[in-house]
Amino acid sequence: MQETVDMADDPEYEEEEPSFSDPEDFEDDVDDEGEQLLGDILKEKPQEADGIDSVVVVDNVPQVGPERLEKLKNVIHKIFSKFGKITTEFYPETDGMTKGYIFLEYASPNQALEAVKNADGYKLDKQHTFRVNLFTDFDKYMSINDEWETPEKQPFKDFGNMRHWIEDADCRDQYSVIYEAGERTAIFANDAKDPVVSEERARWTETYVRWSPKGTYLATFHQRGIALWGGEKFKQIQRFSHQGVSLIDFSPCERYVVTFSPLMDTKEDPQAIIIWDILTGQKKRGFHCESAAHWPIFKWSHDGKFFARMTPDTLSIYETPSMGLLDKKSLKISGIKDFSWSPGDNIIAFWVPEDKDIPARVTLMQLPSRQEIRVRNLFNVVDCKLHWQRNGDYLCVKVDRTPKGTQGVVTNFEIFRMREKQVPVDVVEMKESIIAFAWEPNGSKFAVLHGESPRINASFYHVKNNGKIDIIKMFDKQQANSIFWSPQGQFLVLAGLRSMNGALAFVDTSDCTLMNIAEHYMASDVEWDPTGRYVVTSVSWWSHKVDNAYWLWTFQGRLLQKNNKDRFCQLLWRPRPPSLLGADQIKSIKKDLKKYSKIFEQKDRLSQSKASKELVDKRRAMMDEYRHYRDQALQLYQEQKEARMELRGGVDTDEPDSNVDDWEEETIEFFINEEIIPIGDL
Amino acid sequence: MKPILLQGHERSITQLKYNREGDLIFSVAKDTVANVWYSVNGERLGTYNGHTGAVWCVDCDWDTKNVLTGSADNSCRLWDCETGKQLALVNTNSAVRTCGFDFSGNIIMFSTDKQMGYQCFLNFFDLRDPQQIADNQPYLTVPCNDHKITSAVWGPLGEFVIAGHENGEINQFSAKSGDILKTIKEHNKQINDIQTSVDLTMVITASKDNTAKLFDSASLDHIKTFRTERPVNSASISPIMDHVVMGGGQEAMEVTTTSTRIGKFEARFFHAAYEEEFGRVKGHFGPINCVSFHPDGKSYSSGGEDGYVRIHYFDPQYFDFELEV
């Protein structure tokens, strides 16, 4: 118990009046300027330079005579008063003509900054593009040294072979596993027998990890920023300091990484989103961002040349490596709802909902030319979703509509065939609500889950060259809410994740057969390996607190391993870079597959017999050890026999019936009734 | 393998014991009655009435004369096995958690809970001196203040008691001096149950840390570990095969929110030498609180949080089954 003293009744306490004056030798640690105490107020204290800071210089203004000066002033005013109140304006003249540049003074330096940021590069007409600078920048530009200083050469850091894992003799793929509630992270090499640990570290990341798109880097998350690891021993390759970083996105070319942090965004210095150069580690550009609800905010084109972001009514496309707006101008698209890059070409698809009499439309735009290659008008649209096939051969727009005269929502799939002239569009009408849609990654098939639980159907469609879209097969009454195609196509897993208890159906879509039906109870994730040979189902601790494990299956649905890991969180396969082999080479390998498969089969048999031999050896050793122990224990037991007999009054009780002479015979007759007890779903 | 269902308790089963010959099973539960059954057909032979709280533990001496029970009504009682008459009553300050007869049947031990301001004690009475019970004066009492005893059994020849504690520690307490002879900490969570092999040379511990472990009784050397993914409430060693059976499951307090499927309320059979699971028996619809092999190894029984005791006679295949070596 803690002792409490009642202060008021304590006489000593009453006498001593607390003193608030500083002791004599006290030194105030607040500096004289008082910045620490009044920082926010002092910021607004007028300064000598005031006024100059608020002045901007606008170049490339049309040169006009007095008769048109009034008109020019009106135009200028209209453009520049958006950023704040213009207190003075000055149009220098010679011979009655303006000189082509003007000075504008704003009420505050902030407004001048806004003007520079937004009006610089403003296109007044074809001949006149404004260049806007702060007046104070003149000093800055004047003081630039005319002599070129060669930047110091940075020493080259050798991180070894960044693609070491691909050289694995058995072509094993790697995957990362986070477990113990995030405490430990390990990289395993996948093996049909048992996973082989490549690297394991405690507290490697604070939240989760991400692989870069070609598998070169592993990104770990820390309060202070992002670290990239790679090479044979997973050495640290690069660090990006971004306080509170929570989301990242790699460019497909692995050259850039985009990081997002909800902390520390200031008006002057945008840093909610930062784009970094992975090779140099330099910050390329910062952006403001209010909410990252629809991450990634910036979507990359397939080659990493462009990246785009949507804000209400605009689509801003930036180009690398300058990180500037493409053609210095955003696209004005009022009402734009969503956009998506083709994964195969520099084509962007976006859609705009209905606006009064103007129908909703889906537009495909070529970049950087900004040429609209296809526009599709749609009516009574509620919502659209854009689904690209992985090669960019097809685009499916899932359109939810409420046609006049009907009740409820109807869904259509508008299939754009990108590889054909004029991009023909075909429509598949769906009568039921759609649960999931997925393209075959490298083919022309797609799978759809539709219906209402528990009557969920899985349908498979094929888009033919002539544009005919045939349904190949429908499975009814499926326990599924997600579709996972093998990255190589043809095979897929229909999974009923989470609330559907982890039902799994392995389908071969070449002839639409169900290869296997299985279950990983309460599974929350399904992950195909990059080769499409294996698939992992897992129960993540993030979504479910017991039985956290990941199971490895073949693509046919044969269970190979159950890996229980304490508080397992996440498994991610390490992506592979695209094959260096040409289409012909791949074809010839496929042709000669029989020749190769023999070698592999032999290898598999060898390793299998080795495995069973290892298991048998292990068991034999364990048994020998156990027998050895038991023999010793039993020997001791025999030696104690007399002591035991003594304790039990001379009766030998070592065997259940060793004192059978003392037993009393008892005859019992019983009627054993039989009853059936239902014990529920066991 | 069709089980015999014993429906004699209204609350969850807390402990099961066979007598030495195995013709009788004693069962105690969180209701106040101790039951005794014929193991051959599951008929109830009788009850031991008197406790007024949950009964935590039961034991029977080697010649099936006396029965000992310990209860949350703060008493440990000695009964005449045949007549059900209460022979002695020892009042305690807190609940009696574990109890047992030594090899000779002359000395009893029981441990009390750390509860209501009272400490955990391990008490020893010699029944040959009736005065000890009459005066409630054990000849030896050992305080265990740090971590209370959650399960205990007698070692061979009555020399010491092997006790498991709530922090996973296992101690050997001398029955003569009360000294700790040996101490180990192989488990990192509470020991729920300790049982000896029929010859008392080995003990198996069941722990909340999802494992059961086999130890040598005398040296407390660790021999084997059996892993599951649920807390283990009880484990038993087969007297004739190199097998152990384990029972457990999701903890009772979490069970209302989970289906029987996720709870994994199955009895699980492991090979004692290979530490590999080779079989499961379903049936209980709550966690299994206790399992016990029949002394002849031809059947086993389990008692669950669901209040049922199930006696299972093994099919012939069980005895032929071998793991590939």
Automatic annotation (TrEMBL), chain A:
Protein biosynthesis listed as a keyword? yes
User: What CDD domains would the database entry show?
Assistant: RRM_eIF3B
Instruction: List localization entries.
Output: Cytoplasm, Stress granule
Print the keywords alphabetically.
Cytoplasm, Initiation factor, Protein biosynthesis, Repeat, RNA-binding, WD repeat
In the UniProt record, which is one GO cellular component term?
A: eukaryotic translation initiation factor 3 complex
Q: List, alphabetically, the Pfam families matched.
A: eIF2A, RRM_1
Which Gene3D superfamilies does this UniProt record tie to the protein?
3.30.70.330, YVTN repeat-like/Quinoprotein amine dehydrogenase
Function, as annotated:
RNA-binding component of the eukaryotic translation initiation factor 3 (eIF-3) complex, which is required for several steps in the initiation of protein synthesis. The eIF-3 complex associates with the 40S ribosome and facilitates the recruitment of eIF-1, eIF-1A, eIF-2:GTP:methionyl-tRNAi and eIF-5 to form the 43S pre-initiation complex (43S PIC). The eIF-3 complex stimulates mRNA recruitment to the 43S PIC and scanning of the mRNA for AUG recognition.
UniProt protein name: Eukaryotic translation initiation factor 3 subunit B
Give the species this sequence originates from. Answer: Hippocampus comes
Name of the gene encoding the protein in the UniProt record: EIF3B
From TrEMBL, chain B:
The terms describing its cellular component in GO are: eukaryotic 43S preinitiation complex; eukaryotic 48S preinitiation complex; eukaryotic translation initiation factor 3 complex, eIF3m
Protein's GO biological process: formation of cytoplasmic translation initiation complex; liver development; sprouting angiogenesis
Give the GO molecular function terms: RNA binding; translation initiation factor activity
Q: Give the signal peptide, or none.
A: none
Q: Which Gene3D superfamilies match?
A: YVTN repeat-like/Quinoprotein amine dehydrogenase
Q: Which UniProt keywords apply?
A: Cytoplasm, Initiation factor, Protein biosynthesis, Repeat, WD repeat
Cell compartment(s), UniProt: Cytoplasm
State the InterPro entries in the record: eIF3i, WD40/YVTN_repeat-like_dom_sf, WD40_repeat_CS, WD40_repeat_dom_sf, WD40_rpt
Which segments carry the WD repeats? 6-47, 48-89, 184-225, 281-311
Assembly notes: Component of the eukaryotic translation initiation factor 3 (eIF-3) complex, which is composed of 13 subunits: EIF3A, EIF3B, EIF3C, EIF3D, EIF3E, EIF3F, EIF3G, EIF3H, EIF3I, EIF3J, EIF3K, EIF3L and EIF3M.
Q: Which family does it belong to?
A: Belongs to the WD repeat STRAP family.
| Record HAMAP family | eIF3i
This chain's protein is named Eukaryotic translation initiation factor 3 subunit I
